[in-house]
Amino acid sequence: MKRAIGLAAIAAMTVSAALAETVAPTNVTLADGVIEASLTGQPGDPVEGRKVFANRKQGNCLACHVNSDLSEEIFHGEVGPPIDGVADRWSAGELRAIVTNSKMVFEGTIMPAFYIDSGYERPLEDFAGKSILSAQQVEDVVAYLMTLKEE
Amino acid sequence: MNLKLWISLAVGSLSTAAIAQDSNELVIDGETLVTETAAPAHLEDFDTIYSGWRFRSRETQALETDDFDNPAFVFVDQGLDLWEEVDGSAGKACASCHEDVEDFAGLRTQLPRVQDGELVAMEDLVNGCRTERMGAEPWKWSGGNMTAMTALIGLQSRGMPVGVKIDGEAAPFWEKGKELYYTRVGQLDMACSNCHENNYGVMIRADHLSQGQINGFPTYRLKNAKLNSIHARFKGCMKNIRAEPFKEGGDEFKALELYLASRGQGLSVETPSVRN
């Protein structure tokens, strides 16, 4: 019992430490198409990122991007370019910028900005003032994208 | 399904789903409908417009080619019952004033239109008769009675080209609809044009994006097994991009409806169509 409480306390501390370093959407600095530093101050988890990429309620990146690494999913969209080998084309800092706010990288793109919490009109009440993904999820997706190499 | 149809479908299926809009014909009861035609002059970025039917799978397409297979006709029959049904304080049915529903041939092609300075949709006309002439309660914009009736009335124009008026008194409504069409909304921050103008013909996950035409409404959707009004579809697309929808029957959606109808000028009315 005592030990369990101790572990929970440590877990709670780690969470608050992570929260303390998380950059809020409004404070993100995106310069020249790059965000160098991790939004959470820590590396993301590529295994989680793969799930976020496919999940319809999270990234739903698969709605628009074909991804051979997710061949177990039957439906891949074609609105954006295939994501295969994306880490050969972009650095982690560039991918972080694309996922955070694609519009700052590709002018007028249909791709949603996944880490902004304002600047859009008429959001459904449940989503108002929120970003589509959390900082952690953005980092997880970036870590996952960095595994997609062909060369 | 008759043999001729089966052959045309079999030939059509040689091509892939992704280029469905370039390959096949819609024939209902021996009549060929226009599912592809030159874009109206006001559409600058488009050469050709296509009915949503062209983007559906062979199986879904086939359901619309025969009225016995078309599940929407259950509701058209309900519409016929409602046509005869006396309702309201005046003791009247639609049939008391309108001799034959066939007299409405052509009406679908002109709506929405401006009357007395207001933009009116078919639902407004139906509810106008109910409240003013029958002394009956108005029907809900996208409710079952209303969609059954708009399907029945719309069917009378099947095969006729969409031809809404967009100049003169209609112009300000049309401009407003156009503006809404190109305005990004919702947490996903997209406009109708992002999907239906810039990306029609490609897959968005499991859906084959069409040009978002409204010539087939109300539409029977396999997804919810009922007739869906134009405004209910607008609402659905807005919710998908996590946007607060405008009100069904409200000024915004009526303006958008006029603008969308005008993007489909020349396509055949397909009411009641079948989609997934």
UniProtKB/TrEMBL annotation, chain A:
Keywords: Heme, Iron, Metal-binding, Signal. Pfam families: Cytochrom_C (PF00034). Gene3D superfamilies: Cytochrome c-like domain. One of its GO terms (molecular function) is metal ion binding. Residues 1-20 form the signal peptide. Residues 44-149 form the Cytochrome c domain. InterPro entries: Cyt_c-like_dom, Cyt_c-like_dom_sf, Thiosulf_SoxX. It comes from the Bacteria. This is Cytochrome c, mono-and diheme variants. It comes from Roseibium album.
TrEMBL record, chain B:
The active site is at 237 (cysteine persulfide intermediate). Residues 78-162, 176-269 form the Cytochrome c domain. InterPro entries: Cyt_c-like_dom, Cyt_c-like_dom_sf, SoxA. Substrate binds at residue 233. Heme c 2 binds at residues 192, 195-196, 237. It holds the Pfam family SoxA-TsdA_cyt-c. Belongs to the SoxA family. Heterodimer of SoxA and SoxX. This is SoxAX cytochrome complex subunit A.
